[in-house]
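Sample intake sheet
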Amino acid sequence: MERRDFLLGLVPASMKSWLGMEQAEGKGDDPRRAALEWLRQARFGLFMHYGVYSLLGRGEWVQLRELIPVREYEKLKDKFTADKFDADKITDLALAAGMKYITITTRHHDSFCLFKTAETDFNSLNSPARRDLIAELTQACRKKGLGIFYYYSYALDWRHPYFYSREYGLASSNAPWGSARPAYKEPEPSYKFRRPEDFQHYIRFVHRQIRELLTQYGPINGMWLDPIMGYYCRPELFPIEQTYALIRKLQPQCLICFKQGANGDEDYIAPERTLGPHKMGGEVARRVWEKNKNKLPEICDTLQERAWGYQKDARHRDADWVMKTLQYCRSINGNLLLNTGPLPDGSIHPEDEATLRELGRRLKV
């Protein structure tokens, strides 16, 4: 029996419609094609950026921007409780807003993981929370017929010893980039990247974590990879074909997006705010955009005006703004992935909750 057939046999009928498998079985199609058609019809999803950066309330890039040393930053894990992260409430809110799926950060650029992993102790199960938040949200989505996508920071890690250095990123001939590491005044002792061959240690870490995500929780709708500039800066370091093949071998129905695209083999594109090639991505970005520009676009934007992770002083957008953004996405035959940054305790910001509920009321009219 082929893996595709084996996987389909394991999926309850209630789950198959949102995975696109039901259509695939009926037509004998590639399950990815049916999954993509489901996503095209879904139109509207909830994005969530949550992690230890939420505790500081200064956005998800706080470690880089404030030059917080690795050992100091990792202490945030010991304060991470997620006391009010409630998967049932989150999924109920998404449904009330008229959303059809949720995308959540399994691991952001700081490398803190919200899932069970053997690759690092920097994770939610090894914090006071003692919980696998990805398992909880996946189960709640499955129970209520919502799709689930896993955001994963594939091309940036400020903690792993062997991610490429800031200096190596700035020396790129295609797209020089200074965000590979914080610009610490003193060398960070845990960073060990010295030559391109060292990067294989990071890739092995990433592939093992992708395997964990795709074997621990049952079938999912897709992998949402980020940030594309980490790839455009040093594309020669990333075995992108091997990564995509691993995902599709483990879950044949699983869609893949990597922002505007890395090699043109992505199932759909997910640019921030507007369509178009990445302005800082150089020739690699322009070349791949020509391959991907006619694929399903999923525009991602956030209810905070700036940061994606919780920011204490942020202004929050209202339902009028969301309606205009939805109209734009529909005008380009695309989806909207609307982000909220949960509070430090994991609850949804009251202003965002009010906006989402008002949005749901308007969409029902």
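Comment: Strands lie at 44-48, 101-107, 147-153, 222-226, 255-257, 298-302, 335-340. The domain at 31-91+99-306+336-364 is CATH 3.20.20.80 (TIM Barrel).
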